[in-house]
Amino acid sequence: xxxxxxxxxxxNIKVVSLDKVVRLEQDIRDSSYWWFYxxxxxxxxxxxxIVFEFMNGEVIGPWGPAYxxxxxxWTWLGEQSLINSKSFVYRFVSDHPEVYFAFSLPYQLLHxxxxxxxxxxxxxxxRDTLCLSEQKREVPLLLIGNADAPQHIFFSSRHxxxxxxxxxxxxxxxxxxxxxxxxxxxxDQFCIHxxxxxxxxxxxxxxxxxxxxxxxxxxxYIDQPAYAATxxxxxxxxxxxxxVGIDFHxxxxxxxxxxxxxxxxxxxxxxxxxxxxGQLLYDLTQGLDNNREIPYDPTYDIEMGDDWNQxxxxxxxxxxxxxxxxxxxxxxxYFGLVNMQYTTDSLRRLGRRLAQxxxxxxxxx
Length: 365
Prior knowledge:
Elements: E1 2-5, E2 14-18, E3 21-25, E4 39-44, E5 49-54, E6 66-68, E7 75-76, E8 82-84, E9 87-91, E10 98-102, H1 109-119, E11 125-132, E12 138-145, E13 151-157, H2 165-184, E14 190-195, H3 200-205, H4 229-240, E15 244-249, E16 262-264, H5 270-285, H6 315-321, E17 326-331, H7 344-364
Parallel strand pairs: 3-5, 13-14, 13-15, 15-17
Antiparallel strand pairs: 1-4, 2-3, 4-10, 5-9, 6-7, 6-10, 8-9, 11-12, 12-14, 16-17
Helix pairs in contact: 2-7, 5-7
């Protein structure tokens, strides 16, 4: 007997058929075009091998699906499970009749709560609520550092609900700043303001988020916003006037630039500062063991006007309008390449490298 469910935070699946091959597809929901996110739990009491086939496009990455026994701790099932980019195989064993599979490495509100619990007793860590979402969830706002400091940094993520790998990067980044503050007092000089889930309803409901009709959260920086979080961010950033504003995203599923970390250029004076931060990050990530560490190379950055990088009403473009000196979107892939497979730990280590680059950048500015 096979039982498949998605009635948990981040769950997303449609069951097409439960024959010898389990046929599935991602639930597009209210996105206006095709996208690729899925996440489901399956229980099978028999010790047997099951083939899973997706019926709506290529949605299984190069390491097979993300895999978890508890829905919290995720790794990759592995290349050996991969039949092709639409299907994979898994053998159930009696010790673990229930397993979770997902498109990439999920990160839900419960992961953020676990991270926050590690540091909530530190005097420099404070939690607030940016606003309430459409479904009356609290949109978390995390402040780290001296709230009265002369300089401020603003981070946001999950304007598109499915873009989960970025949150592991941000965990590593924030963790390094907190650790180093206890030695150097670095966060006396500036305060970090972080909105981890702009589209918290989409994150918890398991939506694609990307291309949500009539427009998604990162096209909502307009005169009459459709969502609660975007005008709240606009008010917050306008008052804060940060020195740095970075909006974190994941690109398309895979291929070419989408397999590499990159910055989204703005076509403004901010590009000079983006290039400086990029050079610092490049210096810190080159010469490392690429089997374990994620590099950054500025050759993959995308210029304003190239391909999809057009002057849309995005979070980063709003920050540019508000004269944030270095406002940018940063893209973190879902998978990486053969010689730099992304894991939750390697993503956190990338975040630590980015924190080191930001430390140097802030000391120069």
